[in-house]
Amino acid sequence: MEFREVVRKRRMIRSFSDEPVDSAAVRRILDLARRGPSGGFSQGVEFVVVLDPETRHRIAAPADEVFEISGHHNFIAQAPVQIVICVSPEIYKARYREPDKMKVREGLDDDTLWVVPYWYTDAGAAMNLVMLAAVDEGLSAAFVGGDADLLHDLLGIPEDFIPIGIALLGHAAPDADRFGDVSGEPRKRRPYDDVVHQERW
């Protein structure tokens, strides 16, 4: 599939069938996701793949109340593959204390150096690669937030890692087109000229 076609076909799918996902496809998706950009090549983004139905339902349970209000079913539990995307700020900070980095950042304290927490940038890049790679594999995907405390406890995620959210992978159910944004009415994409500023804002 051409790259531009992959990007155009990417959608947040909120209804999944019970068709299983090929484990080799999941591995290929994650192999691409781990190749995303990384500040200082810190490589502080890691993934927890959750396939067990009971665990998936426990991860999804905190959203039940929201779905009752929105009229959605719990598509988080429905997705046959949940990928929890995690990132460690400490890995980045440690990397930028190494001798080669200290040569260029000497005199900058951590508050100045990390005014933009680039670990979140890298985690977002990894999430986007998961979404795009899923489309390229002929799968559907979505991304949702999660209960960080629950994810830490349930999945044994180390305390220095932040679970930024959950990528959901599967095959779209026949009724997927019925389910849009959980918390809003359908919206159109903003026009190119509204979001791209040439030379100056």
Key attributes of the depicted protein:
43% helix, globular, alpha+beta, 201 residues, 11 helices, 4-stranded antiparallel beta sheet
Description:
The chain is α+β, with helices and mostly antiparallel strands. It is built from eleven helices and four strands. The chain has a four-stranded antiparallel β-sheet with strand order 1-2-4-3, sandwiched between helices. The chain is globular and about 55 Å long. The mean pLDDT is about 95.
Q: Output the strand order for the largest sheet.
A: 1-2-4-3
What's the SSE pattern?
A: HHEHHHEHHHHEHEH
Q: What helical percentage do the residues reach?
A: 40-55%
For the largest beta-sheet, the strand count, sense and barrel status come to: 4 strands, antiparallel
* Residue windows where pLDDT falls under 50 for at least 5 positions: none
Strand content: 5-15%
Q: What is the count of helical runs?
A: 11
